[in-house]
Amino acid sequence: MDGEVELRVDGRTRRLRVDNRTTLLDALRDGLGVTSPKKGCDHGQCGACTVLLDGRRAVTCLSFAVVHDGAEVVTAAGLGDGERLHPVQEAFLDRDAFQCGFCTPGQVCSAVGVLDEVAAGHPSAVTADLTGPAELSPEEVRERMSGNLCRCGAYVRIVEAVRDGAR
Amino acid sequence: MTDLLRPRAMGRSPRRVEGPAKVTGTAPYASDQPVHDPVHAWLVQAEVARGVVTSVDTGRALAEEGVLTVLTPDNAPRLASTEDAELAALQSHDVDFRGQVLAVVVARTPETARHAASLVRVVVEQRPHDVRLSGDRADLYAPEQVNGGFETDTAEGDLAAGLAQAAHVVDRTYTTAWYNNNPLEPHATTAVWSDENLLLYDSTQGVHTTREAVAETFGLSPERVHVISPHVGGGFGAKGTAHVHAILAAMAARALPDVPVKLALTRQQMYSLVGYRTPTIQRVRLGGSADGRLTALAVDAIGQTSRFKEFAEQTAVPARTMYAAPHRRTTHRLAALDVPVPAWMRAPGECPGMFGPEVAMDELAIACGLDPVEFRVRNEPEVEPESGKPFSSRNLVACLREGARRFGWSHRDPTPGARQESGWRVGTGVAASTYPVNRSPGSEANIRFTAPGRYRVEIGAADIGTGTWTSLAQIAADALGVDHGDVELRIGDTRLPKASVAGGSSGITSWGSTVVAAARAFREKFGDRPDDGDETCVAMPESSASDDYAMHAFGAQFAEVRVHVDTGEVRVPRLLGVFAVGRVVNPRLARSQLVGGMTMGLSMALHEHSLLDERFGHVVNHDLAEYHIATNSDVPDVEAHWIEEHDPHTNPMGTKGIGEIGIVGTAAAIVNAAHHATGIRVRDLPLTLDHFVR
Amino acid sequence: MIPFDYRRAADVEGAVAEAARTGAAFLAGGTNLVDRMKLGVSAPEVLVDINRLPLDGVEELPGGGLRVGATVRNSDLAAHPVVRRDYPLLSRALLSGASGQLRTLATTGGNLLQRTRCLYFQDTSTPCNKREPGSGCSAIDGHNRQHAILGASEHCVAVHPSDMAVAMAALDATVLVHGPGGPRTVPLTDLHRLPGDEPHRDTVLSAADLITAVDLPPLPRGTRSLYRKVRDRASYAFALVSVALVLHVDDDVVRDVRIALGGVAHKPWRARRAEGVLRGRPVSADVFLEAAEAELADARPLSGNAFKVPLARNVIVSALRDLAWEER
Description:
The complex is a heterotrimer of chains A (167), B (694) and C (328).
Chain A: E1 2-9, E2 12-19, H1 24-31, E3 51-53, E4 56-58, E5 72-74, H2 87-95, H3 104-119, H4 138-144, H5 155-165
Parallel strand pairs in A: 1-5
Antiparallel strand pairs in A: 1-2, 3-4, 3-5
Helix pairs in contact in A: 2-5
Chain B: H1 19-24, E1 39-45, E2 51-57, H2 59-63, E3 67-71, E4 94-95, E5 101-107, H3 110-119, E6 121-126, E7 145-146, E8 150-151, E9 154-156, H4 159-164, E10 168-176, E11 188-194, E12 197-202, H5 207-218, E13 225-228, H6 244-255, E14 261-264, H7 270-273, E15 280-288, E16 294-306, E17 327-337, H8 350-353, H9 356-368, H10 372-378, H11 396-407, E18 420-421, E19 424-436, E20 444-450, E21 454-458, H12 468-480, E22 487-490, H13 507-526, E23 535-539, H14 545-548, E24 552-564, E25 570-580, H15 587-606, E26 612-613, E27 618-619, E28 638-642, H16 666-678
Helix pairs in contact in B: 9-16, 12-13, 15-16
Chain C: E1 5-8, H1 12-22, E2 25-27, H2 33-39, E3 46-49, E4 58-60, E5 66-69, H3 74-79, H4 81-86, H5 88-95, H6 100-103, H7 108-113, H8 164-170, E6 174-179, E7 182-187, H9 188-191, E8 210-216, E9 224-231, E10 239-250, E11 253-262, E12 269-270, H10 272-278, H11 285-296, H12 308-324
């Protein structure tokens, strides 16, 4: 029981046959060799597999690939402009906002998603005024980035990097 | 005493060499390594804690299209060595713990392998199990020695007399929970067996360690086992020794010659197959004189081990180093249970073992009416209390003073439960940290010159997020007297010279000493103008410093804690540590290491707790939704600082190791701050809101 | 995970017919169903993908109020300008659930139908009456810190994990359902069941009933609301106790009040006893405490969750206090 899907991944259109049971994450990693999103828990509990799915941050481990026929996926490997890293990635390097690096592609994709959400004025659980403009205060960044676990404990630097990356 | 290397590259803060690959996700971790047409292995685990396998029916699994083989205790090949019982995969029909691997299914796709694994029917004749750790068990025993090769028990003076003459006594029992290391990258091995050679892409803290374990288990000469592990998604001890999945991957690969077999553990499987930190029960007795000097100090630590293999956490060992007291003792006892075998987790011994005593120090300071910083200063020993050796350097007092200054400690009103801000009770606390300077034997390094100016430095070391790719190259640059950019470091592969494991904060001490020795030998042999292709390989030199000196890093951690008046929710808005860790090779990366350790300590203090269900014998919150580790929101402000420390004895770089000390003492500082905030003394971790809600 | 057929629904009727015929499960965001399928807790042989059905709209209803389509993503609903303005407690409840990258996928209907996070329900190696009727409840004598203090039975002590549903319960929302017999409505507070002796049934829906939308009635002028969640981490954790509160105070007298609790029962728990105590009474700390204690009088904590009783009490009281005396 399988199907065929077309995905646009990091700017390239790819077709592949997948088992219905294959998650988007496994389709990317095993099917297409796109190993930038990582499998840290496979249950939506760590955020390491976060990508930008049709422009918005999403985990890829809790979705079957067949559902996403025609979707656009951008991973951390496709965020930059050619050889140039995305400003969030540069900020992660400057702030040393990672150690082992395993959660990092997910953190980076999530951060880019957060910046878009803030730019669009979307509130978070800690936003005092739901109808006012969204801010990028440290508290806001912490809350918005809490779906990305980091066992090395780089959180403090991640918050700095996300805010730097917005500039 | 060694000639300390003159720092030029050391002390600078280049960004991580492998950073661009990590922020794009292109750095290949074990399961990212491209292999041709791999097949996939999935494990079948025991669902009872003790018993005997009476039959295994693989018929339905094998009937699934795409299933290639199923290995079980009935058909698995015999291993050459079962010396390490943890690695004796499928060698016996006995079930020693719930979660033990009883079969491995190999199939063309991971989906098929997983489904087929659910079709394997294993019948186990269940036997009564015993997984309950408690201090009142009659069968607690003293191991021959504890982890690190330390003595099980020590005693000096007359403890009873020391306690009797004390003006104030603290006699309390403290407990730390069962913790799982939970590196973000689950353990994974890809194995290819061809022509009697075994290739492993593994996630390991030491490629050579894995190679030796696998070679011995299969009876191969080590040269036939090639292990590659350039990037490791965290380990924290859980990847410091080989675990059974590596053996199973290799076994499956042997059954399918020339075919790459991928075996990645699930997060859930990591709770039974890759080690964990034992829960501990610590009875701490401290006696203090009226003027706040310790008259007696005792730590009696109880932990657990598995029945089939022993691991003895050295929980009471740090108490042998920390404070002066004329009458003292430390003991370790173990309960052997039907549980998975515990193992290393970041700062084994020191991390749990500085919880009870550092909370007890806070309790005694209060009893003596002394500030807890001052109380610690007052009990500073002149030499290491139990060994009698002088310290190569000891700057705990400087850390306490500097930390107090930076934290703003002097304004502190010691009264517990006296401050409240917008619905939160606020308090501050302090605890000390320590970690030994460990040096692991067995490393070698090769240096080769490529004209016009490149030095290739080769050593099979590991970077588990510690920064080895960057900092070891900085050391090499200074040892060679060249620019950091002229060094090309190669690590993470058994084709490189042998290296010790990245564990015990010993990496830079061991590999760095080796690289420095190699650089010196290279210069001696080839001078400052070597020819293209000149190379030399040397082993780590011996050092007798530890015969003459007690060598430890120290630190002081300060925490602010808020406890919500209505809900009891606990927050740590501020954590500040000051450390004395010898020379710091790369401040940017070192800060990350220390802050990371403190963050994990915060996580331990507030959240972490593996819940063992005694009826079933396994950890039931075996995932990251239910085993809570701190999220970004839990960690608002963590600062790490260090004092300048010149230690000529530890190694040629003057370093002490920084990977573990950050987690030591954090939980005690937070518990002490929570007491200061609320007046409620919590002695059992974690510090959840149920301790406070009324 | 067993192999399954995957079908993309063309319309609501077709999706329902397919489910009625094959026993198919509906697949929306997948964040809970796929999770359970990996664990072996759920094993549908057919999945009907409803993601492309036209159920993703949020529209203002003619008589006031809002209709939220079943496949509106949690992120979109939380950020919707009308929800933020008129139903802030719903926005807050949504934003306090899961994580940003899960809310992008998770849907309104799926959120309502997510199943318990009971450790034993999720672990197929242990008995669980909800997963395997008659096998026993492992939580009653096991690790039950997260579990119910209200409305549980000897067969099941699980709690419903949703935050969104708690806010909707306080809003008196109505669930629009399309079943094999056609469309019908179910009050949200009646959607979820108490476990009784059929804990495997989370809701009153049958397997082929498809949630198509949720209607939110308008809140009267002068009404205030909040959603407050207490959990073990500062973020990204299920509720130990949460409260959704809708309060209308006039002249220091409680004119209208609706309280729903999360994390305490098998369903979003409407605290009707507390509401009864409060309605028509002058606002005072004593009345708030009396109301909370009335609601919790029947609380039956388990070995590991006695703390939830004072916690729930304090959270109810402080929520009332904060809203009643909020600066106008």
